[in-house]
Sequence to fold (246 residues):
Amino acid sequence: MRLAVISDVHGNLPALEAVLANIKTRGADLTINLGDCVTSPLWPQETFELLQSLALPTVRGNHDRMIHDWPEEKLFPAGRFARAALAAEARRQLHDLPPKIELPEGILAVHGTPEDDSACLLEEMLDDGRYVSARRAVLNERLVHAIGADVVLCGHSHRQAVVQVLRGSLVVNPGSVGCPVFGDIPTAAQLEYRSPHARYAVLTRRRGRWEAEMLALTYDWDHSAARAMENGFPQWASAYASGAVA
Fold:
């Protein structure tokens, strides 16, 4: 079995198109989407339409939920932009996505942790806003509701990672297709370097074990940066162009 895993597209249509084209070359049996589909100052509606046409099994991310049920004043500016770009029915469809999906071969797909779409599974946040790897005890506690899963797929942190838990699950975060860092929350992006690549993962089961390929693809990120500038989001433009906020 070969599984392509995408997450955190965040309305970045060119990045999504590049990833989908690459997936076609990989011979994946199935592609699963871990959520946070459209929230950004880029192409929310167009990205929603493309994902709808693909009908991928898709987990609801925290932004997919918030864009529907949070009051306007609580949303970040990019969230308000995306909400305005989408019809009410589209927002409802994003909100109604399942919070978790169970696939054959013992695979559990979530956005954040199995019980919280707004929390990271593999990371803890430092006081300055940067992520570090979660301590064993913390990760074990977060995985209590995933006991029995051979593989746990998660997103949310936008950081690629593969972790094998002792006597437990293989945990895989494919990284973010379309958002290396958030322009609305620039703290970590001002303290560390990332990259503007579009990221996803391919999992392959061989002789009863899973291997993971973590992909980082080039695409026309200058086009995405220009779109963010046109829509009045210069910090997001910096994030798309370089993976960092100046």
